[in-house]
Design a protein that fits this description.
The protein has 212 residues and is an alpha+beta fold. Helices cover 18% and strands 32% of the residues.
Amino acid sequence: MKIFNTRLSTLSDTQKAQLAEQYQADDYLLLDFDTRQHSRFRAITVSGEAVGVDLPRTGVLKGDDVLINESGELMQVIAKPQAVTKVTADDDFLLMKGAYHLGNRHVPLMFDHSFDQGNADYALYFENDHVLAQMLENLGLHIESTSVPFEPETGAYQKGQGHSHGHSHSQSHAHADSSSDSHSHSHSNKHGHEHSHSHAHSHHDETVGQSE
């Protein structure tokens, strides 16, 4: 099984052409956010080949990151669309208020304006949580379930910025950022509900596939 153990920061024209060919052949990894938080795992490419990823603990894999193994073979990571909660508001100030309350609870949060927002200019996305959704509705924000590639912000003090690659598979580039390997935050809202959001970045050997 091929093991990819290095994240590329720059690509040559030859490597870009190689990745374009691999994409046409479905030779890439389509991974959700939970899997991309890990530094060590087994996965199945879209074409059905089993591969391993064994990286230094240098942060969450981003959509369009490119990995290389000791033989010089490349593997591109693409963020898989997943079920999330989309938040919009009638005005930007109200959306900013919602972002504050979610950030205060350490919720991984994606800011985006490239997807279709209808009448809204911007939207927030977070992993489904009915208690948080209810809190936001109580604040007057609009909530809906959707499925998009989830690329939450990495944090202002980390290298790189959170970004969304919604529908782009034509570009191949890598982003390295730093994050702690695991963290757990407990929080409660005004209804007295308390949850714990744990996001582990530790090594694991679970195999992930591409089935919906």
